[in-house]
Amino acid sequence: MIKTILSAIAVLSLALSAQAQEQITTEQLTQYAQVMMDIDSMKTDLTAKSNDLVKGDPLMDGGRRFNDIKGADGDETKLAELNVTAEELAAYNQIQETIDKMKFVFKNTYTEAIRGGIGATQFNQIRSALKTDPELSAQYAEIVEKLQEPESQEG
Where's the DUF4168 domain (predicted)? Predict the structure, then answer.
């Protein structure tokens, strides 16, 4: 009896998943692709700005000192073993604070891009479907490739 119920639930779940995936139009998939490309661009920008902050500070020794301090994770003993100066720690904290603010702005912008571009529900539905539907994933890859074509021709 339990096996029958579990089998019925599994079949129903697959049917609902397939129905949800069938409802995804090319237009919706294109909107999703545009949103994801925008997000990827924002992510790349955030990474570049973060790296510039870290590498641009002379006390951070091209980022090596930043990584050492970050690896100590606030542990006073580890910081002492690394001979971290108060000046280096202050510079690290300032950089980390700036990066945290940029991440906060990114997260809000990311959320707004999803809401404004396609909507959270549809975004999550498509993201989920892409993980389980190879045909939809292939269609998505084609759309992304087409959307990127003008970029490569402009540069």
Answer: 26-139
7, part of any domain:
no
d(CA 64, CA 41): 26
Q: Which amino acid is at 117?
A: G
Of 35, 69, 67, whose CA–CA distance to 50 is shortest?
A: 67
One-character DSSP codes across 16-73: HHHHHHHT--HHHHHHHHHHHHHHHHHHHHHHHHHHHHHHH-GGGGGGHHHHHHHHHT
Residue 148 belongs to what domain range? 27-154
Number of H helices, E strands in the chain: 7, 0
60-105 pLDDT tens trace: 999 999 999 999 999 999 999 999 999 999 999 999 999 999 999 9
Could you give the CA distance from residue 89 to residue 94 in angstroms, rounded to a whole number? Answer: 9
Q: What is the spatial distance between Cα 123 and Cα 32, in angstroms, rounded to a whole number?
A: 7
Count of domains forming the chain:
1
